[in-house]
Amino acid sequence: AVTRTFSIIKPDATRRNLTGAVTKMLEEAGLRVVASKRIHMTREQAEGFYGVHRERPFFNDLVSFMISGPVVVQVLEGEDAVKRNRDIMGATNPENAEPGTIRKELAESIEANSVHGSDSDENAKTEISFFFSDDEIVG
Ligand code: CMP
């Protein structure tokens, strides 16, 4: 079925001017950008977005990294969008990611790993509505 997922192009990628390169890989994987905006997250936004990771040892570093520069938040649409996006992103740690994936080809480290993508349809809905209103999404 055609579904939607949520994506973030992270500060390490925007810093290296890779917004287009990442988006091209998403598009070539069969995903369509139906909403997109460049933002600089506040600490409160980043802490709220990553709330499920609050107890993890890397939480503070993760939040600091995510507010270290601009990001591009996107809604992606396509057949089985969550899985399609996870496949093209590759493993969280770029060292473990398959060749041809965004993280293998572009990411710097497990923290500076260039992209975030929702891990389930349910989380996709929550994450999309964290950053976008319905009228900002044009399919
Ligand atoms: P993301 O999909 O954005 O969700 C949580 C993020 O935490 C993850 O990608 C990683 O970039 C980041 N992170 C930083 N350190 C770690 C770690 N040791 N294990 C897992 N994720 C980490």
Secondary-structure map with pairings?
Blueprint: E1 2-9, H1 11-15, H2 19-28, E2 32-39, H3 43-49, H4 59-66, E3 71-79, H5 81-89, H6 102-106, E4 115-117, H7 121-131
Antiparallel strand pairs: 1-3, 1-4, 2-3
The site of adenosine-3',5'-cyclic-monophosphate has 8 residues, from loops.
What proportion of the residues is helical, as a percent range?
Answer: 25-40%
Q: Span between N and C termini?
A: 15 Å
Structural class: alpha+beta
Cofactors, ions, other ligands: adenosine-3',5'-cyclic-monophosphate
Major sheet: arrangement of strands: 2-3-1-4
Low-confidence stretches: none
Q: Label the overall shape.
A: globular
- Average pLDDT, rounded to a whole number, is 98
Portion in strands: 15-25%
| SSE ordering | EHHEHHEHHEH
The total of beta strands comes to 4
Largest sheet: 4 strands, antiparallel
Radius of gyration: 14 Å
Given the structure, what is the number of helices?
Answer: 7
Description:
ATP binds at residues 10, 58, 86, 92, 103, 113. InterPro entries: NDK-like_dom, NDK-like_dom_sf, Nucleoside_diP_kinase. Keywords: ATP-binding, Cytoplasm, Kinase, Magnesium, Metal-binding, Nucleotide metabolism, Nucleotide-binding, Phosphoprotein, Transferase. Its main location: cytoplasm. Major role in the synthesis of nucleoside triphosphates other than ATP. The ATP gamma phosphate is transferred to the NDP beta phosphate via a ping-pong mechanism, using a phosphorylated active-site intermediate. With 139 residues, the chain is α+β, with helices and mostly antiparallel strands. Helices cover 40% and strands 20% of the residues. It has 7 helices and 4 strands, in the order E-H-H-E-H-H-E-H-H-E-H. It has helices spanning 11-15, 19-28, 43-49, 59-66, 81-89, 102-106, 121-131; strands spanning 2-9, 32-39, 71-79, 115-117. The protein has a 4-stranded antiparallel sheet with strand order 2-3-1-4, with helices on both faces. 33% of the residues are buried. The model has no long low-confidence stretch (mean pLDDT 98). The site of adenosine-3',5'-cyclic-monophosphate (CMP) has 8 residues, from loops.
